[in-house]
Specification:
37% of the residues lie in helices and 13% in strands. The chain is an alpha+beta fold and 101 residues long. Strands 1-3-2 form a 3-stranded mixed beta sheet, covered by helices on one side. Helix 2 packs across helix 3.
Length: 101
C-alpha cells in the first residue's frame, strides 16, 4: 500500500501464496499476488518486485513503456536491480508437509 500510494498506483487486492515458480503476478482485475518466499529476499528486491507488479496495473505487458515506468519507480536503478536480482532467482523450495512421517 505504501509503494502504491507513493507512486500513484491503485490495485484491487493483494494475496500471498506459496508460489514456487514466480515472485509475483498481477491480473487484469488489478489483483496482485506475491509468493510468501519473497520474504527471503533483501528489502530492495522486495520493493522492486512489488513495483514491478504495480506497474502491471498500468501496462499489462513487458513493453518499453512498462520498463520505462518501472525504471522511474526504481529511481533509475532498474538495470542494476535486475542484474542483482538474478543472484536471487527463485529455486525450487521444498514442499511443506503436515504429514507425520
Amino acid at each position: 500500500a505504501e509503494l502504491a500510494k507513493q507512486w500513484g498506483f491503485s490495485y484491487s487486492k493483494i494475496s500471498i501464496r506459496s508460489a514456487r515458480t514466480r515472485w509475483g503476478s498481477c491480473n487484469s482485475h488489478k489483483n496482485l499476488m506475491f509468493s510468501l518466499f519473497i520474504m527471503t529476499l533483501p528489502y530492495e528486491h522486495i520493493d522492486h518486485i512489488i513495483l514491478h507488479e504495480l506497474c502491471h496495473t498500468v501496462h499489462m505487458n513487458h513493453s518499453a513503456e512498462f520498463y520505462a515506468l518501472l525504471n522511474t519507480c526504481c529511481n533509475g536503478n532498474l538495470a542494476r536491480l535486475r542484474k542483482e536480482h538474478k543472484k536471487h532467482e527463485m529455486t525450487v523450495f521444498p514442499k511443506f508437509s503436515m504429514d507425520n512421517e
